[in-house]
Amino acid sequence: MAREIPFWDKKVETASRDELNTIQLVGLKKQVEHACQTVFYKDRLAKVGIHNGDDIKSLADLKRIPFTTKNDLRSAYPFGLLYGSQDDLVRIHASSGTTGTPTLIYQNRKDVDMSADTMARSLVAAGCTNKDIVQNMMTYGLFTGGMCFHYGAEKLGMTVIPTSSGNTLRQIKFMHDLGTSVVHATPSYLLHLHQAIEDSEYNRKDFKWRMAVTGAEPHSEELRQKIQNKLGIEVYNCYGMSELNGPGVAFECIFRDGLHVWEDRYIMEIIDPKTEEPVPDGETGELVMTILHRDAMPLLRYRTRDLTHVITEPCACGRTHRRIARFTGRTDDMLIINGVNVFPSQIEEVILKEKGVGANYLIIVEKKGVLDKLTVQIEVTPSVFADDARVLASLAKRIKNAMSALITINPVIELKEPGSIPLATGKAIRVDDRRPKE
Ligand code: DLL
Questions:
Q1: Which residues pair with 329 in a beta bridge?
Q2: Quick check: CB of 238 below 6 Å from ligand 1?
Q3: What percent of the residues of the chain are helix, what percent strand, and what percent coil, each to the nearest 5?
Q4: Which residues of the chain have a pLDDT value below 70?
Q5: 350 CA from centroid of ligand 1 (Å)
Q6: Are 84 and 221 within 8 A, CB to CB?
Q7: pLDDT (0 to 100) of residue 3
Q8: From the CA of 217, how far away is ligand 1's center (Å)?
Q9: Which residues contact 155 (CB under 8 A, 6 or more apart)?
Q10: pLDDT at 384
Q11: Tell me: the pLDDT tens digits for 322-358?
C-alpha cells in the first residue's frame, strides 16, 4: 500500500510558483523595511539606494542588496542587527565555534513561534507524528540544535525527552525504558550509539526506535546508508544553521531524496563563490539565504559557505518548495594538500565503503619539510582489531589505494583500536590541521 504523504500546512507546502513568488516579495519588502531600521543595514542599504521596503518593487531587486557574511555579523556584535525593542526579545542563541567574537541570533516571541512552526513542518514532512517519542541528543544551550528542535517537536505534539548530548548509557536506558521512536543526533553520535547498544546489556530488538533526524555536520550518503543498515532505522537529513534559526531550514520528506528548502520562509540563491554570480540550476555553488520569517533580526543574502546544488525535478511528495542536494562541503573546509583541493567528505566516502571500519576517524594534515603530509586515523570494529595483522594491513592498503585514486594524494592510513580516537561531545572533529599558519 502506498505510504500516505503527510503535511503540516498543505496549502503553503504545495503552493504554486506564482503564489510562492508573491509570498516572497511581501516577505522581502518587510525584511528590508526592518533592516533599514537597524544600525548594521541602514547605511549599507542607503548606499545602494534602498531606504525602506517600498524600494523593493520585485524579487529582481534582491540583487541590489549586498551580501552579508559571518564577519559582518561579528562586526555587528552584539545588537547591530536588532529591529525593534530589546525588551521584546525572549531568547538569544549564538553560533557554534570557539574562537573570536560570537555571532548572535536574537528572537522575539513571534520568532520563537515561527521557528518552532518551521521545525514542526519539517518533522511532519519526514513522517513524525504526535504519537512519537523523540529523544533530543543535540546539545542544549547556545547551540540551536537543542532548543530550536525541542520547541518544534513540542509544537507538533511529540513527547520530547531533552537528554541533550553525551551520557550514552543513560541515553540507551531511556530509549529502551520510555519507548523512544525518534532520535535527533549528529551522524557521528548515531554511529557511536550503535556501538554502545551492541556493547550493552540491551537487545536492539527490544527498542521502538524507528527513525533518526540527523544534521549539524557534513556527512555522506554512504554514512547514512551505513547508519540505516546497522541500526535498522530510517535516517533523515536536516540542514540548518544558527544564523537562520537553527535546524529545519531544509529537510528531507519521506522520499529522502534531497532537502526541501522552505521557500515561503527563505529566499535561496546558489552562487559561484568567486564571481558571486548565480550558477545555473543543478550546478554546485554556495547557498545564500535571505530569511523571511524573522521579526527581531533581519538577515539579507547571507553567505552560508555551504556547497550544494538545486534539484530541478519535482518531488514525488507534491511539495513545490525546491530541493537541494546533500552538502558536499563548505567553501571554507576545503583542505589544500600539496596544492590539491580535498574535501573531508571525499575521504569519508572512501572510509565508509569499507566493511570493518568503526565509528570514528580523524584526518591529520602536517608539514614535513616543504611538503604536506596527510594521515588518516580510522577506528576499526572490535572483531577486525582482534584479527590477524595481515587482515589489518590489507584493509589499510585497500583504503590507501582507494583514497589516492580519488584525491590523487597518498595518505598514511593508521588503523586504530575501537574507542581510541577521542569522541567530541558536540559536533565531530574530523580534521586536525597541524600546519603552521602562514
Ligand atoms: O548546526 C544547526 C543544526 C542543528 C542543523 C541540528 C541541523 C541539526 P551551526 O552550529 O550554526 O548550526 O552550524 C551550521 O553546520 O553551515 C553546515 O556547514 C553544517 N551543517 C548543518 N546541517 C548540516 C547537514 C547547526 N545536514 C553549519 N549537512 C552549516 C551538512 C550541515 N552540513
A1: 307
A2: yes
A3: 35, 25, 40
A4: 1, 96-100, 339, 341, 437-438
A5: 22
A6: no
A7: 77
A8: 5
A9: 116, 117, 119, 120
A10: 93
A11: 999 999 888 877 787 876 768 788 899 899 999 899 8
pLDDT score, position 99: 47
Considering only CA atoms, which of 408, 272, 287, 430 is closest in space to residue 336?
Answer: 408
What integer pLDDT is reported at residue 437 of this predicted model? 61
> Which three cell numbers, joined as nine digits, stand for 321?
518548495
* Distances 378 to 195, 321, 366 between C-alpha atoms, Å: 15, 39, 17
Q: Which grid coordinates belong to 432?
A: 586536525
In 3-state terms, what secondary structure has residue 60? helix
- 343 within 8 A of 403, measured Cβ to Cβ: no
**Nearest alpha carbon to residue 284 among 272, 274, 296, 268:** 272
Cβ of residue 68 lying under 6 Å from some atom of ligand 1: no
Residue of 139, 305, 306, 343 to mutate, ligand 1, most atoms within 8 A of C-beta? 306
Between the CA of 353 and the centroid of ligand 1 the distance, in Å, is: 24
pTM for this predicted structure: 0.86
Query: What is the model's pLDDT at position 69?
Result: 94
Ligand 1 centroid – CA 215 distance (Å):
6
Give the position of cell 544564523. 243
Q: Return the closest-CA partner of residue 215 out of 179, 264, 254, 259.
A: 259
Atom of ligand 1 nearest to the CA of 250: 26
Distances (CA, A) of 344 to 159, 220, 335, 337, 374: 36, 10, 8, 12, 12
Q: How far apart are CA 122 and CA 156, in angstroms?
A: 10
Q: What is the pLDDT of residue 96?
A: 60
Decide if 13 contacts 319 (C-beta within 8 A): yes
Between strands 182-185 and 133-136, the pairing is: parallel
- Catalogue all structural domains in the chain, each as residue range(s) with its CATH number: 1-332 (3.40.50.12780), 335-433 (3.30.300.30)
Sheet of strand 211-215, all strands in order from the earlier edge strand to the far edge: 159-161, 133-136, 182-185, 211-215, 234-241, 246-251, 259-261, 323-324, 310-311
- What residues form DSSP beta bridges with 214? 185, 237
Cβ atoms of 291 and 83 within 8 Å: the answer is no
Secondary structure (DSSP) of 133-159:
EEEE-SPPSSSHHHHHHHHHHHHHTPE
